[in-house]
Amino acid sequence: MKTTLCRIAGTPLTTVVDFGRQPLGNGFLEPHQFSGEYFFPMEAGFSEASMMFQLIEQPDPEKMFHDHYAFYSSTSNYMARHFKEFADQVLRSGYLVKDDPFVVELGCNDGIMLKNFAAQNLRHLGIEPSLNVAREANKHGVRTCSEFFTEQLAESIVAEHGQADAFLAANVMCHIPDITGVVRGIKKLLKPTGVVMFEDPYLGDVVAKTSYDQIYDEHVFLFSALSIRYLFGLHEMELIDVQPQTTHGGSMRYVLAHRGAYPVGDSVVRLVAGEQEQGLDRLATFESFRASVEESRTKLVSLLRDLKARGKKVAGYGATSKSTTILNYCGIGPDLIAYISDTTPIKQGKCTPGMHIPVVPYQTFKEDPPDYAVLFAWNHAEEIMAKERDFMASGGKWIVHVPEVRVL
Ligand code: TYD
């Protein structure tokens, strides 16, 4: 689906970076599938009217979040801890009514967050269009509904369960092209005292760190406080709090409520001022972002070519969705990166989308370590550095591209 108009304001979108032909970020595949592989032209656009950074064209959601969707949140202990903390924050927040509160989560995945509410016998509902992951959530005692969230679905939830005290989402809102439909649904679903709390990768970090790998098919939007405030403001809702998160290399948790229900916190005032200073409301900022992205590509490719010329063995660490954008945008294939090691069984034995670098089990990295490892899972750098002391002690080096291309 291609749009040349801002999905929020309806005014013309300006292309800020053209990434060329891209496959699905998470479309790991086997060699027999290469010939039918799906590609789309990926361009990122910006609208000064809504201050929303968004993709111009995006594949159908059905192509991305289908029954074989490979991502299970609970495979990461770190994320399990993160969502336990998120749930605890909601429970302590004072926003839930004392008597029989009702919590809804959009994109509940395998129940990683809602199971914390289920464990306390709190009324909850997870909305998860991917049937296979929704079934996993059910196994964790989490009640789910396998549909896309729309205004109509919000109405039927209200008819069956009443209005919600909290509407939660993590790494989901930025995936939804019809975000306006979702906000309309939220407006109907929330009690007058209810709150929305959601988090997604943060545009401010992407621009500051040139982490352009956050841009791939699933991320139709990259949000800022400015754009979220604008979007919800169109529906009489207000941003009341913001909380930066370290997850996904820099995320933001937004708290919103019906207009006038709660005071607007200082955190919002400060962040909005910071974003204006950073220029997240101006096209010119994204023109210099494009220059930084191009420079990052030039440096990474020349570093890898140089290592190849010197006979060094280079592998990748973490077959992330993010890496798909880097590999395809930079044209990096198995000639420059021999393999990518990943601990996720469902990715192993497959090849990376578009550039077809083999994804191998972690064991391969341990047994046959490269001279250099490109840290594609840079958002987990702390955990990985702690785990890979042996690799470094035996002379192995890391290549990172964020915030700039360098060897560690
Ligand atoms: P993720 O953080 O979900 O990034 P994205 O959203 O871009 O896909 O993915 C991290 C990937 O890295 C996942 O496939 C698991 C892998 N990984 C390892 O192989 N080893 C590790 O030690 C860690 C932390 C992750």
Describe the structure.
The protein has 408 residues and is an alpha/beta fold. Helix content is 34%, strand content 22%. The strands form 3 sheets. A 7-stranded mixed β-sheet has the order 6-5-4-7-8-11-10. The chain is globular. The relative contact order is 0.12.
Radius of gyration: 21 Å
Give the rounded overall mean pLDDT: 95
The helix count comes to 14
The N- to C-terminal Cα distance equals 40 Å
Query: Which structural category fits the helices and strands?
Result: alpha/beta
SS strand fraction: 15-25%
Lay out the secondary structure:
Layout: E1 14-23, E2 39-47, E3 52-55, H1 61-64, H2 77-92, E4 102-106, H3 115-118, E5 123-127, H4 131-139, E6 144-145, H5 151-161, E7 164-170, H6 179-189, E8 190-201, H7 203-209, E9 221-222, H8 225-233, E10 237-245, E11 251-258, H9 266-278, H10 283-309, E12 314-317, H11 321-330, E13 340-341, E14 359-360, H12 362-367, E15 372-375, H13 381-387, H14 389-393, E16 397-400, E17 406-407
Parallel strand pairs: 4-5, 4-7, 5-6, 7-8, 12-13, 12-15, 13-14, 15-16
Antiparallel strand pairs: 1-2, 2-3, 3-9, 8-11, 10-11, 16-17
Helix pairs in contact: 5-6
Question: What structural keywords apply?
Answer:
408 residues; alpha/beta; seven-stranded mixed β-sheet; six-stranded mixed β-sheet; 14 helices; 34% helix; globular; binds thymidine-5'-diphosphate
